From TrEMBL:
Compartment(s) of residence: Cytoplasm
Function of the protein: Involved in unsaturated fatty acids biosynthesis. Catalyzes the dehydration of short chain beta-hydroxyacyl-ACPs and long chain saturated and unsaturated beta-hydroxyacyl-ACPs.
UniProt-recorded name of the protein: 3-hydroxyacyl-[acyl-carrier-protein] dehydratase FabZ
Keywords: Cytoplasm, Lipid A biosynthesis, Lipid biosynthesis, Lipid metabolism, Lyase
MF GO annotations: (3R)-hydroxyacyl-[acyl-carrier-protein] dehydratase activity
Major location (coarse): cytoplasm
Catalytic activity of the protein: a (3R)-hydroxyacyl-[ACP] = a (2E)-enoyl-[ACP] + H2O
This protein's GO CC annotations: cytoplasm; membrane
């Protein structure tokens, strides 16, 4: 781990990611250690639109949105480290592997997403990440995923 860890607040996240409500799924990213590791935070609230139908009377965050939140955390990690703010970086899923869900994520939870780069380097287009999402220290989901970073020249 480097001596100086970076952070990204919601303002910087919005300068890196093109996502907006209702699909911006990370509130801040802490402990950014270059392009190697980062910790994303998602505060889960009842006013998110997917809770109206997933499921009425028993709101549960959809698993695909948990994986998307992990992917957004990875993109912010890379985008922050490579100074991609305001440069219209696009990131596209290529694969999701070894994905498992272990507990429900519900309104009021704080989802913490620990991301690690498994493959990829500055200047490269294809990256692979491993992610573990937890709530109160209990694993909610884990996955490996690959993405193509469409980085502006």
């Amino acid at each position: 781990m480097s001596d100086t860890l970076l952070r990204a607040d919601i303002q910087l996240i919005q300068r890196i990611l093109p996502h907006r409500y209702p699909f911006l799924l990370v509130d801040r990213v802490e402990e950014i250690d270059g392009t190697q590791t980062a910790l994303g935070i998602k505060n889960v609230t009842m006013n998110e639109p997917h809770f109206q139908g997933h499921f009425p009377g028993m709101p549960i965050m959809p698993g695909v949105t948990i994986v998307e939140a992990m992917a957004q955390t990875a993109a912010v990690m890379v985008g922050t480290t490579l100074d991609m703010a305001d440069k219209e970086m696009k990131v596209y899923f290529m694969a999701i592997d070894k994905c498992k869900f272990r507990r429900k994520v519900i309104p009021g939870d704080q989802l913490q997403m620990r991301l690690t780069t498994l493959r990829g380097k500055p200047g490269g287009k294809v990256w692979k990440f491993g992610g573990v999402a937890t709530v109160d220290g209990e694993m909610a989901a884990e996955a490996e995923f690959s993405a193509m970073m469409d980085l502006p020249a």
